[in-house]
TrEMBL record:
Taxonomic classification: Bacteria, Bacillati, Bacillota, Bacilli, Bacillales
Protein name: ABC-2 transporter permease
Origin superkingdom: Bacteria
Organism expressing this protein natively: Paenibacillus faecis
Chain segments annotated as transmembrane: 21-40, 52-71, 106-128, 140-163, 170-191, 211-232
Keyword match DNA damage: no
Key word Transferase present: no
UniProt keyword list: Membrane, Transmembrane, Transmembrane helix
Amino acid sequence: MKTWKDAWFIFRKDLRADRLYLIWNVVFMVYSGVMISFLFQSGEKAAVERLLTPMADFMALMLIPMIGFYFSRRSFSYIKEDSYTQMLLYYRTLPIPSRTIMRSRLIQLVTAVVFNGVIFFTALYTMLYFMGEEIAGVQYISFALTWMGYALAMNGPFIFLELMTKGRTYLWMTFVFMFVVGILAFVISWFNGSLLDFTLNQSGRFGLLSPVMWGCLAGGALLLFLFSRITFRQLGRRDLAR
């Protein structure tokens, strides 16, 4: 229990220190939701039946994982200052155990997914509504939870890179992620598919019983757990001087 209490203390301390960055956080989430909404193709078919552009899939695959963290001075300076490594060096001098650091990061992830997810998906739904798209409430909730599961899955590897690599390595791996996502979106579009269209259809067909939604949530939680275990086991052995 003390470890969780200390983790909550670190999380609240970081949040208070970077509370002004939350403004940019909210702005970015609203902007992302609005931007993706404009990538829905207009046409005669209903939104649940239409094909979406590969760019929409690409933007969703790239941007939605970002709901898993808050903007902060540390996240803006990780390349120039290697701020995450400096944070770990500081925690080791206190000393703060690796378990507390991991739990603090997981608390940040869960609260960020809820906070940012509500903002992002509300902005997206609002824009689609004003664009004349009629999506049932239950269908949209299922759709949002499906993509939140994806965000959990992707944040497992991101947390590993954040805590286990230098800032420049983290940057290059982000570029690799963007490249892979771009190829994936193109291949799916080549075969006349769309991830957004598929998840929206499944949510409309099954609602909160959607197997895709539950699969994404379960798979995301499992992948997050596995990467968290790997990160925790290696965190205490990481050589922060290199």
